[in-house]
Amino acid sequence: MKKAWSSMIACTLTATLIAGCSTAGNGSSQNQQTAQGDGKSSQSGGRVLNYWSPFSGDSQKWDQERIAAFEKKTGIKVNVTFVPNGGLNNGKLLAAITGNSAPDLVEADSPALAYSYAAQGSLESWDTHIDQLGLGQNLMPGFKDLMQYNGKTFLIPQDSNVLMLYYNTDMFKEAGLDPNKPPTTIEELDQYAEKLTKMNGNKIDRMGFIPWTDSGGDAFTWLWMFGSKIYDSSTGKLALTDDKSVAVYNWMNKYAQKYNPAQLKSFTSGFGGMFSPDHPFMTGKVAMTVTGNWFTNALRIYAPNVKYGVAKIPVPPGGRENGTLLNSNVFMIPKGSKNVDLAVEFVKFGLAPEINGPNFDQWRSIPVTDSKFDEVSWTKQGDPIYKLERELANSPNAGHPALTKISPQLSDELKALQDNVIYNNKDPKELLQALQDKLQKALQ
Amino acid sequence: MSIPSIERKRDYQLASAHQRQSFKNGIQLTAQYILLLIFAVCFLIPFFWLVSESLKKPSELFEVPMLWWPKSPQWSNFTLMFSSFPFLLYLKNTMMLVIPTMIGSIVSNALVAYGFSRLEWKYREQVFVIVLITMILPFQVTMIPLFLLFKELHWVNTYLPLTVPHFFGNPFFIFLLRQFLLGIPKELSFSARIDGANEFQIFYRIVMPLAKPVLTTVAIFAFLHTWNDFIGPLIYLSDNHMYTLSLGAQQIMGTLDPKWNILMALGVTMTLPVLVLFFIMQKYFIQGITMSGMKG
Amino acid sequence: MNKRLNIKQRDLRNAMLFISPWIVGTLVFKLYPILASFYYSLTDYSVVNPPVYVGLDNYASLFHDPLFYQSLANTLYMGVFGTALTTAFAILIAVLLNNRKLKGLSFLRVVFFLPTLVPVVIIGILWIWLLQADNGVINTLLSYIGIDGPAWLADPSWAKPSFILMMLWSSGGAMIIYIAGLQEIPESLYESAAIDGAGFLRQTLSITLPLLSPVILFNVVTLVINVFQWFAEPLIMTSGGPDNATLFYSLNLFRNAFQYFKMGYASAMAWILLLIAMVIILILFKLNKKFGHIE
After folding, report:
1. Fold of the CATH domain C66-291
2. Hey, are the CB atoms on B200 and A4 less than 8 Å from each other?
3. How many structural domains are present in chain A?
4. Distance from the B254 Cα atom to the nearest Cα atom in chain C, whole angstroms
């Protein structure tokens, strides 16, 4: 009996060891740099940068090319992990920071989320290195707030994007509207929307405009455009209960009550992504929508036959006229990064125009200093859309909204509030007050 | 000798009763069959759709009205998938997780479940409740402490955190095996003990062979759980070339511009080998039941 | 030396040896994390900064949080209706599939188990497609028989039923376990019942269900626990909407833990979940004792 027991235990242990050794052995044989698993570069003797990137698809290819060029130029080896959102919203980065195995550099594609990491004190600051980065002078006004928290610089924008109003020019002509005169105020927007809407009995054939498609469905877009302060960093208080904020949801509710809210939502439901060929703007279900410059790439690929124009986003009186929302990809250094100097070198390399060039070319994204616009091919070609982007980016009303410690939660709560108003025809003022009270506590 | 007329009448009555009964049975059977078929078709529809989408051109994916089947099936989606997605590498990685997990799950849970079902001891039921409790706690709250633990052991970025714990029992499988083992008659164990067998021999020679069906079930579920798991690999693996199929699929999905037809092709390809495996294994465990023979 | 132990002691020692892997595993891989999570529940813990002790504040806040109640209600809805429907459905199909008199069953069994083989990440997208209001497969099929399908995932009243549909479709695992359990029931019992004149329904109620009760208990408990832990599909498919209709408990927990920097709050949620689940499971066990059949 003892023999049976001991042989069983021996078997189990052996199996464990075999499993452990073979997998661990394989792990290290495939890639020497990761043998340590926690970012030390001592083993290989060379310099190694551990970098997390959020990109996928074509952007990932571009990033890989960028990395290859960097490695060639500097001899620094880059250990890249491609992880959705840079690991910021699924616990991966949190675990790594706590476990003292954080990467040296992370790039995030969601600035508000990255900002909350800065505000929570989980990032190292760039201040001692900022001169080396070659960001140049004349950073456009909307970027300073993004980069700094409490007077220190934590986020370096790689590039940015702006939101615009896209409209279908054929549909405009069909409805008797001048495609060269897009709506400039919310009132006009509503009027145009009505003219462009086609009903088939009770069913909707085409909606002129739905406030919450694409970027309109993000929590802060319309609050920002309508002129709400959302968060006052000088007082540290949320500002969501003023008339401008309330007006946003009442305006959305108008659309909801006129047409059935569930019908509206399902009319445009797809994957929520901007790149499915079933996007309602591409399939002609919706005549106008508010989204970012990246959408021009999607239209080029999936709906080359749709004739469209772009314009600045319409605002109500007192709103952020000629303004827009900026949406930037940012570099951040997590606490516990072991190769800050290598991270700085990589970012410096990445900010160079010839490196960022292909990125701009594909997505019509923009640099963060005005002078760099001139080097982009779109500008050289005289592209009118890019010209509009440049104007909008330089506007004092362009910015990154809701840069707070609690932005992810604020965003989710605002979206739920929006649904509540639309589906249940509730009064937004009370709801906003309750939301503000609840979240103000979290800000203390 | 002639059969008395009364008996003949009874025979006749019995025969027609049997005929009526089998006719009734026939209707019942057909009804059951039809019901099954209807449900089966319903179950197949999503899978059919998966296959259909995997063969479509990107423009056909979202056509209105809906296309049941692509006009010209793009088998090239599959070759495209193989060239743009490291399928074989990720498959190998997934198998490196799956095989130890299956072995560990079968061995450890069989032992533990045996202890909770085939032996009588004080506080057995109470301790078992503790087993269940450990099943309930959501992974989100244990994830960070566990990560820290594995970090101390230097197991991060290896497959160890994803395989070793399976050699130490899993409440789900312990529960499953226990329920089944409870159903095996105690007399089998008693008589073996009287014959002088020690507990491990009873476990290995008598009880486990009878438990083959449920052990196969455990193997299948362990396989599927590991095959599908992407959270574990997401948290513990930093190297892209250690990624598993599920994590890789998740990455594609997280893209701004996912190529849906290729993703669907990946879905089909991930399902097929498992399907074949299941087909083979199911014949084994659904048949070969001697347990009911024991009870009857 | 062994022979001097009496039977009870011997059994206890053997039992301890058999369950030793579980004991070790739980102490190492479960106990520490569980205790840690309880400690965190008493703190304000952003994960990137050390925990700050706040006593029972998290629990107090939870009881004032409307999202806590809503997510709990959503999950209980799925727990009750989803589990009940799925259990009834799975048993029905398992009984049908177990009928030895029908041909071609091994193929059909595969069909019902097939959904569990499709990777979870793919299932989410697949079902978004299927449930598309205008162009989805389900509504198209319904239109063939003249029904105007609802907006499914876009309609707060239909979002949860959509998830129940998904649960039913994925119940192949439970079905297989029921089949294995059904096969343990001797054919002879059914035969003698048939001779006594019992029809299909009567047989099911008096033979199948009672003898299947340990398996039913297992599947129901497992389902309930799974429902409580469900978060990947709602995250991918609906982000908890519309109108928080699919904000399930675990999704809310996930957000607090990994997106809102409120690991302490999330840990408190987890412990409340633990208590609720324990109560439910104890109730289920008691019910099983009362109505079930034990060897």
Report:
1. MetI-like fold (1.10.3720)
2. yes
3. 2
4. 10
For C154-207, what is each residue's pLDDT tens digit? 888 899 999 999 999 999 888 888 887 887 777 888 888 878 877 777 777 788
**Residue tagged 């792990």 (tokens):** A27
Any A CB within 8 A of C161 CB: no
Note whether residue A387 is domain-resident. Answer: yes
The domain locations on chain C are 2-41, 66-291
CB B113 within 8 A of CB B177: yes
Task: Please answer yes or no on whether B239 and A81 come within 8 Å at the CB atom.
Answer: yes
Contact A288, A188 (CB under 8 A): no
Give B269-291 pLDDT, tens digit per residue: 888 877 887 777 766 555 433 33
Burial of C214 (C-beta count, 10 Å sphere; 0-12/13-18/19+): buried
Flag if B121 and C187 touch (Cβ within 8 Å): no
Q: Which residues of C touch A271 (CB under 8 A)?
A: 125, 128
Query: Which residue of C19, C47, C157 is the best one to mutate when testing the A interface, meaning the one whose CB has the most A CBs within 10 A?
Result: C47
With respect to residue A419, please indicate whether it lies within any of the assigned structural domains.
yes
Subunits next to A (3 or more Cβ pairs <8 Å) are B, C
C142 part of contact set with chain A, CB < 8 Å = no
Domain with B255, as residue range(s), is 82-291
CB A132 within 8 A of CB A348: yes
CA distance C221 to C229: 12
